[in-house]
Amino acid sequence: MSGRSAAPSVPPVLLGTIGGAIAAIPVVPLVRELALRLGSVPGIPGAENAARDVKGATFAEIAAIVVAIPAFSFFFGRALPGFLERRARPGRLSFQWAGAAAALASWLWKRGVVPAVAIPSGIVLGLLAAGFVLAFRNRFAVRRLLSRRHRWRIAAIGGTGAAWELARLSNPGGARPIARNPILDLAIAAAVALIAGAFLARIRGRFAAGLERTAAACGLSLPLAAIAIAFPRTLPFALAAAAGVFLVSSWIGLSGRPRLLGAGALLVLGACGWTTYYQPYSPVNLFEDGHALGFAKAYLSGASPFRDTYPIHGWGVDGGVDALAFRWTSATLEVFRIRRAAFTALALPALAAASVAALGSLGWGTAALVLFLATCPFVSERSLFAIVALGFLAAGVRRERARYLVLAGVFAAAGIFFALDMGIIVLAGGILGLGLVAVSLRRAAPVVGFLSGAVIGAIPFLGI
User: Fold this and answer.
1) C-alpha distances out from residue 269 to 188, 265, 274, 351, Å
2) Structural contact between residues 189 and 164, judged by C-beta atoms closer than 8 angstroms
3) What are phi and psi of 90, to 5 degrees?
4) What kind and span of H or E run contains 319?
5) How many CB atoms lie within 10 A of CB 395?
6) Where would I find the H helices in 329-419?
7) 125 sits in which H/E element
8) Helix (H, G, I), strand (E, B) or coil at 133
9) Alpha-carbon radius of gyration of the chain
């Protein structure tokens, strides 16, 4: 018997039972609405009648809670898994995942989908999940499709479909969504792309080779989708070109690499940031915009930072970079907005790259990026240099590459002059963290590399 205990895991029956119960929650408002429409309104006081506090509707809610929720729990937790288990080969993938998929019905309802649509959608999703598990357990071809070497190809094809749909929805003239929820729109587009990709891969002979060609075609079409997102006026032509490149390259078998896909995904993220923050017709924010523009005007007139001005947020964000942009181009509000949008748009792909570098894999890095954007969707231009420094810092520690640590120090020092608080946090945290690494490894090379990079990064700003 091993002295190391196994990590606790969630029992499959509990997963299906809880998922089924969550899937049944939209039934409660549905039966209440039906009771209000079909039942007669009794002669109750006016306030209760105005509030639609009808006893029949209340009884219908209680009946739904007592009957529907346990019924859904039993169906997805016991009945459906037990029925399919007798028809499937032994395997670790559980049929109770159907309950987790059906629980999306409650999420759809919370996002504004009416219960009469959300509940059947959740049931269909649950049954599709159960069918997938059955196919996975009984067919080797399905298990081979989800092998490690195919996962990035599946993600590439689905992500490309979502990028195309995102470009279509970015049309300033308005685009009719497939579903009411944009996230559901992107999921539908990804599923359609996967079906089309599997079809293209199949008709070309060997499925694995065809899937690789289709994923390579995604890498060639993603930059065109990014152009369509960043410049909506090019939308019809860019999307047509993206679809043409995808079909032609997947058919004739043009070669592609995962790095090309990564670069295309970063371009799409940057285009999304650009579209979000470049708003040429928005009003000027007299406090935020005026603060930076006032400092920029002072620098154009010959003022020196920290002698004639006091840039509390840092020289860069408080007009310093804008003054340089004005000198190189022209001192206009358009240049100011383009500069700020460009820096903010660069922060979004930098955050994606830093997430992958910190967690060591594309899958976990993507999950971290999605979690971050779900909780804090605003990525400020002030964090650009800090995010880049963190990415190089994580890559240097994971890969034990001295040049990455030097680059991390360069961007951390540049961050102090660009955004004071962000730069101080990254520089201090990098010194402390690498100091602990140096103590554990009994060599000071990581800290020395980081500090030497910080000195190099500070030199240009000391001249200014």
Assistant:
1) 20, 6, 9, 10
2) yes
3) -60, 145
4) none
5) 22
6) 333-359, 362-375, 384-399, 402-418
7) helix 115-138
8) helix
9) 28
Whether pTM > 0.70 for this model: the answer is no
In this predicted structure, what is the pLDDT of residue 228? 82
Q: Give the residue among 348, 387, 391 at the shortest CA–CA distance from 370.
A: 348
Coil/strand/helix, residue 163: helix
Output the CA–CA distances (angstroms, integers) from residue 152 to 140, 219, 455, in the order listed: 19, 12, 39
Give dist(CA 237, CA 430) in Å, integer. 46
Q: 């090379």: which residue's tokens?
A: 445
What integer is the mean pLDDT of 411-425?
A: 88
- Smallest Cα–Cα separation from 125: which of 112, 138, 140, 106? 106
Q: Find where tokens 């195919």 sit.
A: 150
Asked if 121 and 108 count as a contact pair (C-beta separation under 8 A), the reply is yes
- pLDDT tens digits along 32-59: 777 766 655 554 454 445 545 555 567 7
Angle between helices 402-418 and 420-441 in degrees, nearest 10? 150
pLDDT in tens, 63-88: 778 888 888 889 988 898 888 888 88
What residue ranges in 21-61 does DSSP mark as E strands?
A: none
Contact between 15 and 97 under an 8 Å Cβ cutoff? The reply is yes
